[in-house]
Predict the structure.
Amino acid sequence: MMPTMEMLLDLFFGLIKKVITSTLHKFLDILISLKSSDYKDVKFSLKVTTNKQKTKVLFAEADNDFADVLVSFLALPLGTIVKVLKKHYGEGKGKSGCKEILLNPKSPFEDECRQLKLDINETQPAKCFTCKNPCCGRWDNKIECSSVYYDTVECRCGKMMAIEIVDKASRVGPNYDGGVYTINTTLIVISDDLQMFPTMTGFIQTLGNLGISDIDIGETIVVTFGFKEIMDLLKGSLFSRTPLSDIVLNKRRTLDSAKQKPEPGILVHRMEKQATSRNTKKMILKVLVQKSTNKLLFAQSQEDFVDFLCTLLAITLGGVEGLLGGKTCLNSIDNLYASIADPDLVKVHLEGYITKVQLANGYLSEYQFRLPLEERCGSIRPSFSYKASSVNFVGGKGKYVKGQRMYKITDDLNVTPFHMTSTISSLRGLKIPVSDVRELELEIGLEEALSILKASLTSTSALTDGLKINTMLMKQPKQER
């Protein structure tokens, strides 16, 4: 059959579309790389007031740009925080074999992050795909059917979506309505432990909120924060109760949060209580404990518990705060989270998004019923009709962990495949006889999952602290060896 003129035109327009799309993407990649190289040259100016002894920062005054960067800490997934800190401080790379989506999870706030004066994650535009069929919608300027997944969603014409497109509507421009997250105001007051107050709060009330009297106030200095100081501030917000003093006054205190044990038990937030009534299914975790010392050796589980642990890396810091009711034991982050509830500080619609427990589109595992999670399609615009709802996970696999098998989880959450021979070798290396090992079978529901999440933020013995193993063993009768 000889090709008709219409068929040849369809083929021609399809090839032109591919060439133009490829050229546009190369050009945009060059612009993004140039912008990324400028990030480390960005500077912020802060007016910092110390006490008379110059041993503590009482408060700092900053503009919307700096406050936006602080709020953006809450928009970073846990896995991203680990990645950017390791990259900056040179602590090595993630282990080989880990999935890219867990080593470099996307934030559900990509559009907002790309508008920041300094985006420490250097967020790249989301890639979108359209139909392979060059005839599909070729006479229409609008992309009728698109997907954020490659080659996993069918167009209405039956072809797979695998041609990358440029989402012009998602390209960000300057924000003229105040900051990215914050409302347009002259200056924002920030305490040493990252409480934020708009200047419209009032002078006396702000001093009272900060716990400052006039006899405490020393001198005011102008301090410049660049990329390095912002990274120090991110790290300090996780490990210190006085991150501004640590940086401005060069007070390298011992990281107190690393020593801080999570509170015994956890109060399940109202939202989680509602989820508990809906989700009664539990995971099974077998915990091996040394009888003579009551020390947790390791735990054993199927893929559902490991998938739950992987999901934690994709949850934003603000989402963690939402799950734990604003009480994570990370004092400075808790204060930052509490500050965004102020309607005079943060834009109301964004505050609602940040406090919700959301993952980026495509990160919702089939095991998500353990936690009340939902997806936010941050880069999706009304001008596009996306077919992402038919696939609930990147690549359509449905879960992070491949296959049904058993896994070994250490107290500090190192996960490896479970093998009898290697486990016996490990016990021999520790000089622990099998007769001194006791096995407990625990049910992990929502409350236990949240407790493990909370413990993992501050403890290197997340299972022991999160599941309160020591308390549990004290209540049980001792077994004879």
Q: What stands out?
A: The mean pLDDT is 75. The two ends are 84 Å apart (CA to CA).
